[in-house]
Each structure stands twice: as C-alpha cells, then as structure tokens.
Amino acid sequence: MKLNEFYPKTLIEPFRIHSVEPLRFTTRAERQKALKKAGYNPFLLSSQQVIIDLLTDSGTGAMSSNQWAGMLASDESYAGAASFYRFEAAVKDIMGFNHVIPTHQGRGAEHILFSCIAKKGDIIPNNNHFDTTRAHIENNGAQALDLVVKEGRVPSLVLPFKGNIDLDRLEMLLAEQGRNRVPAILLTVTNNSGGGQPVSMDNIRQTGAIAKKYHVPFFLDACRYAENCYFIKTREKGYETSSIIEIAREMFSYADGCTMSAKKDGLANIGGFLALNDDTLARRCRNMEILVEGFPTYGGMAGYDMEAVAKGLYEALDEEYLSYRIRSIASLGEKLALAKIPIVKPTGGHALYVNAAEMLPHIEPLQYPAWSLTNALYLLGGIRAVEIGSVMFGMQPDGTEKPAAQELVRLAFPRRVYTQSHIDYIAEVLTCLNEQKEVLRGYRIVSQEPVLRHFTARFAYLG
C-alpha cells in the first residue's frame, strides 16, 4: 500500500490520562468575593476557587504510573534507606557530582548552601536570581547580583539564548573583587526571572572556565535542567544529534555543583537536593542538613518521594515529552501574538510570560501593573498566574522600594496536567482581557512582610 507521508497539524499529548481530578467552575461574583477576601493576593486563594492554576509549575505536575509503582516499593528507614541510594544513583548518573544531599525542596538546598558559603559583604552573581534564591543570599548579608545579557532584558527581542550570563561583566566583577568577595557563581537554567529563557552550552562552558580561572566555585540552579537541554539540542549548533541525557551530562560537567527543586524537572510533588564535588564543603553542608532538614540519607524527603524523583529525573529527559511541552506553550504564544498581546519572545520551556508594562502602560510601576493583570486574569476567567515584577522584586534589602527591571505575568504550566483545550481557553480569556485593558487600575500594598512579601502581602485596588 502506497500512502503519502502524514504530517499532523494537531498537537496531541504524548500520554494517556489514567486518573482525573474534576475542575470546579466558579462564577464571576464568586471570584470577586474570593479575591477581595484574599486581600487581592492570588497566593491566598484556595485552590478550589481556581479553574486553571498556573501559579507555579513547582510540585504541581502529574506523576506517571512508573513513579507511583516505585513509591509503593519505597524504603522508609531513617538511615541508609535503599530509596536514598536509588535516588543518589540517579542524580550521580545524570549530573555526575560526588556528593548528593537531599532536601525537602529547592529552597532547602539554597538555605544549606548559602548558610555555608555566604556572609555579609559578599557578592553572588547570577544571570537572574529568582525570589527564594535572592532571599537566602540576602538573608546571609550578601548581595545577589543579576548579570543577564542585555538582550535578556528586551522582551520583544527574538534570540535563541536570552538567558545567558554576561561573561564580560562576570569577569570584570571577578577581576575586581576576586574570591574574597565572590564565594560562588550561579547560573539559573532556564532563566526563570528572565522569561524562562535558556542558557547556551557555550555560555555555560565559558562561565565554568572563568570560574576556574579565578578559583571560584560554579553552581547551576538546575530545577529546569531538562528543558534547558532541549533548547540546546534544538537551537545550538553541534547538538542536533545528541541525546538529551548526553547534553545534560556535558552541561553539569562544567559546574562544581547544583541546587535543584525536584518539583520541576524531577517531576515530583516534593523534594530537592544539593549536589557538589568539594569534600570539605560537602561535610559542612551535611552538618547543616542534620540541623535544619534531617539525616543525610533522607534530608527532608520520605523514601517514596526519593523514589518518585529517581524516576522523574529520567522521565523529564524524554524528548517526546519535552517536545510536546515546549511546543504547547509556543502554540499559546502564537495565539496571543495574533491577538497583539505583548509577551516575552521567544516563549520559554515551563511558562509563558506576558509583558504587563507594555500591555498596561497607563499603570505606574509602583502601582504594580503585572499584579493588576494577574488579578484581572483571575476575575475574568478563573485563571491563577503569578506576578514577576515590582511586588516580587521591588523591595530592596534596606527597606526602600524601586521598580523591578521588568513587569511580567508568568503563566507556569504544571507538567502533564492540562490539555490543548485548556490552552485554547487561556488564549480566549487573555484575548478578551486585552480588548478591555484600559479599565484596569493599579494596587497599593496594605500590609507586607520584609522578606518574600509577595507570598502574603495584602492589597487595596486603586480603581
């Protein structure tokens, strides 16, 4: 039988749905009441008040039947559990570091690492620090310095690796300050605060070379490592025929360690780790782990969590899964572009970012345009997203406030949870919102905490 080749236009999920969770559809009046009661802070909403939850991709994914099967065979021993050794073996196989320190999630790894290496007066550079990373650094008296390339600060610019760190500025910093004031270099892959943009292998390699030149440890924030590897494969010359795991192994080979929230590309609902090569630092970190997380062979995780992560780290490297995930988010970007909604281009791996500063130019930065857009998205369509703007990053260590570098609304997609019909609904809601954006007004903060204020702050609407 001679048939022409079939090239499908329909994007289908590379999985079958084995179990379902019903959505509760709310009315506009219910959402208005709920948001007001929550102090106009989407973090303070109950999940039952949300139709589509894009607040975060952290720990919100659907686990596979293989992960659930592994969880049933877990070892919950306090010390030396078999589940830990399977978890450790997976991390070492993919990432290659000598020491694996389990934690309850990524911020546990950040707390341990920065408590051991950062002190007052230090400077820790990164392409862009995300919220908890910055908070842990500043909590130890150090400065979290963003050195993303200038192209990464232009949302409309289409380039393959806008998450890269500025190598010239990095070397200038190290030449001026040296290891005495720079205890480590970080690189977040993909660059969450900068629109989910990837970092090239060449940039990672050169960062590692600069770190070695100045004898400064180099760590990756690796929570979305698999997505970054996929972008390297599809966008960077020389990696077209490499497997995702081969790319991952090379990427980690240039670093001295990593922190990871396994709630992202570990495809688990909880868990994380700190991995590193330095024996002396590892000993100090394990001592800190015993104090704040738990015994070194479980940290903050149960045995079944370690089993889920051990399998999830490999599942996240599946090329068909990555291709679908990234293409799905790109398809939403295409729909929004047709509706003339400004977004960060090109679309990232785990999320789509709307440029609220451009969409709502009539709202002043310190009246929080991205926060306003986030709340409007919930009111209109029951969609919960997160602001990455002046609420999240405007508060300075000395208590003053200044506008953030960008005003973005992040739509972060849980892994293996939503289908293409959900994507179409999100596009419809945003299109409708864009058509009436002039009626939106800003917010003022009524109450806030001095650290990570966006999680708990309460607001008043200025309309």
UniProtKB/TrEMBL annotation:
Residues 53-428 form the Aromatic amino acid beta-eliminating lyase/threonine aldolase domain. It comes from the Bacteria. One of its GO terms (molecular function) is hydroxymethylglutaryl-CoA reductase (NADPH) activity. InterPro entries: ArAA_b-elim_lyase/Thr_aldolase, Beta-eliminating_lyase, HMG_CoA_Rdtase_CS, PyrdxlP-dep_Trfase, PyrdxlP-dep_Trfase_major, PyrdxlP-dep_Trfase_small, Tryptophanase_CS. Pfam families: Beta_elim_lyase (PF01212). GO terms for biological process: aromatic amino acid metabolic process. The keyword GTP-binding does not apply. The keyword Signal does not apply. Keywords: Lyase, Pyridoxal phosphate. Its cofactor is pyridoxal 5'-phosphate. Belongs to the beta-eliminating lyase family. This is Tryptophanase.
